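User: Can you fold this complex?
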Amino acid sequence: MTAPAAFAGLTALASPMQMGQLPDWTALAPVLILAVTGLVLLLIDSIDADTTNSALLAGVSTLGAAAALAATAWSLATGVGQDGGAITLFADALVVDGMSLFFTAIFTSVVVMVTIASYDYLRDHKHQGEFYSLVLFAASGMALMASANSLATVLVSLELASLPSYVLVAYLKENRGSVEAGLKYFLIGALSAAVFTFGISLVYAATGSLIFADIAEALSGGEFVGIAGLGVLMVAGGFAFKTASVPFHFWAPEAYEGAPAPVSAFLSSASKAAGFAVAFRVFVEAFPLATIPEGINWVLAFQILAVVTMTLGNFAAATQENVKRMLAYSSIGHAGYALIGLAALSAGGSANGNVLGASMAHLFVYGFMNTGAFLFIAMVERWGVGRTFEDYNGLATQAPVACVAMSVFMFSLAGLPPFGGFFSKYFLFFEAIENGFWWLAAIGALNSVLSLFYYSRVVRAMWFEDPSGSFELGSQPVGLYAAVMIAAVGTVLLLPGFPPVIETAQTVAGTLFA
Amino acid sequence: MNPWIAIGALAVVGIGIPIGMMAVSSLLRPSVPEQGKSATYESGEIPTGTARIQFNIQYYMVALLFVVFDIETVLIFPWTVIYRSALEQGVSLGAVLTPMLVFVGILVVGLLWAWRNGAVEWVKSPRATRRKTERQS
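Assistant: Here's the predicted assembly.
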């Protein structure tokens, strides 16, 4: 960057923009609020180093996440980054548009639920301040991922989201399973980050730029197709890790099972959505189908990945005995559904924006139902009930309200009609057919039918089986209950509330193709 | 002439010189095998035990904090280079100073946290001290 450009960047920070009196950088308010909340939590932990004041810590983090959610919702409602075109910051390194805000809304809602639930889950644990601040740092990394507009910022924000996640998975450091999960997650993460970085370097070698728009322009020249193609493939590998898709999926069952359940909820919902956010933007903006050379056909790669991922995830989930592990594999299966958003694109396809938007809307609903399901597991762990399907037998006699919520999540994840998950899946498959990929939709629908089998096993165990032993559930965890209820109400409300969600998602996705 | 030929020649010379030197010295030198020559060189100390021992975790903490502030210096350096010319070209003092102060401020919060949580204190391990005194007595 030349010196005058650097000054322009500095003055841009202070210059007012079109929208009211707010300067441009305030468009990043959700990210800034998340990061500042993380720092405030560190400060609280510095003032009282061994604080176990869960109410204060959970309260501050929930407030921070809720404030970030409110800022995101306000930005979406007032059209920041949409009406006046996307807002780019720091010499095009970051961009705030409808899509980044939509995904930030997913992350912040998940963080709100996770921090409320952690209030109970972490009681009696040391190092609570660190837990909450790491969650918020990871969330700010995810929000940055959704805003990244250059491969350099993609890498930095991806690491900002990943590094706290590794620590969070190993948070129960006296617990062998948690430490083992953290180590496996870290090693596979390091490997895939290396693959990803190498891919970026190859793309840079072939195009001479890291900014998405410049990469697209350089690629349309049709030079160095071999190097660029290899780079694109390796970049896709990096995203496969973050979204827990084949071939970098095998960390997911271990990590989700070993991690504290609120962390599993956070990773399988928010972290996965963050991976998709950045993958959508990179592949649509930097490697656009319309102008990319014939040799780099990433749609074919994603079609294979989507089919393999959803089939493998669902078949593996059907054979599990452990409920948390079943949910982990089901989360891999859902990554396969969301990949349809990329796999069903075609050069100049009329429904490109709609299919991508449907995938985003599915991730939004998934954020609620999957977080809720994992938080129910957290509650069950808190009660000290076992982990297998048999241990859940007759749980409804003891905790009917929570079991109703869990049944809602299960049916919604399976995609049964009266819940939010039905509409999101329906739209996803419908738009895939509209764009000419009926076979992807058919495989997705077949997988959904299979998934009904293992989701309904949980429901049957809770409601219809007789308890194998007597339960002693002990205290009622208020925070966990509240978080599960928020997720359940969200899942149900997304049925009547789905039209605005899908409309927003498809509008903001459509602008990517414009 | 293709400029890569020069680079190839450089590579040939670069590989040839060390190999040539080693080959010549192995032809010229007398062979006197001796135990001291095959021992590990440990800055003049006599090596004891294996290298596979557990180091105190606190070396790691100190090294980590060092790396953080080392990188901080590297990242502040470009800022110091443009500082004066930015002011001369009429950028306000606040716009020049604020990003750096925010950056340092974030790291100060981290250091404060590490300090308060005992990362920079050199904690003595009672067990290690006990073992040491047992060995001496």
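The first helix of chain A runs from residue 3 to 14. The first strand of chain A starts at residue 87 and ends at 89.
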